[in-house]
Amino acid sequence: MKRLGLVGVAVVAVLLSDSAVVAQTTLRIGLAEDPDVLDPTLARTYVGRIVFASLCDKLFDIDENLNIVPQLALSHDTSADGKTVTVKLRPGVKFHDGEMMDAEAVKASLERHMTMQGSNTRNPPSLRAPNGVLEDSFYQATGRPLWNASSIYVPTLLVAGAYDTWSFAEDREGLLRDLVHAPAKRSVLIPDATHFVLFEKNRLQFFEEVLNFVKQ
């Protein structure tokens, strides 16, 4: 499988005099914790996202104005029905091991993300909830949306608890309004539930709403 490898870490010696540092040429960046796993498909922590930002390139990213901008890709075109996306790759890009990044490599990477054994293969089935919500909360608290709902081209279900203090009715209304390219969209309010509905008594209603939406 072709994936971007780790960047080597350079160690620079610090010259010391008898009593003081003569020169300091190494920049050290400290993190409060270690990433959970160095695999973009399996990683689920916020600190992992920070580390991956230094290690991995994406096909696309989002700029400060919520526009989709190319990185390893040059451009993309979406079909009128929203079911097909054609991506033009940047030429001459190589992985850290020297192999070329081509359509075959990108296809293999995407298929790995979609087919790697995970929660959908467990018995009984289980739900994986990554900690990306921490980044969402940070952007929300600083008044900067993390993404633009108009970039979503798939059916979308919004679920919230009636006592959720992390999001409000106007947030859901705005999100529904911006889902201009979603072929189907629905908003559900779970009674007697908070932001942590997955762990509360009405979680079965949450699961039923998701299953019903997927079946439609």
Describe this structure in words.
With 216 residues, the chain is of the alpha+beta class. The protein has 2 domains: 146 residues, Dipeptide-binding Protein, domain 1; 69 residues, no CATH class. The chain has 5 helices and 6 strands; from the N terminus they run H-E-E-E-E-H-H-E-H-E-H.
Summed over residues and divided by their number, the pLDDT gives a mean of: 79
CATH topology of the largest domain: Dipeptide-binding Protein, domain 1
Q: What order do the strands of the largest sheet run in, or round the barrel if closed?
A: 1-2
Q: What about the largest sheet?
A: 2 strands, antiparallel
Low-confidence regions: 1-21
Shape: globular
Integer count of domains: 2
- Please tally the β strands and state the result: 6
CATH-scheme architecture of the largest domain = Alpha-Beta Complex
Q: How would you concisely characterize the structure shown here?
A:
With 216 residues, this protein is an alpha+beta fold. Helices cover 25% and strands 13% of the residues. The chain has helices at 46-55, 103-115, 133-141, 169-178, 203-215; strands at 60-62, 68-70, 73-78, 85-89, 156-161, 185-190.
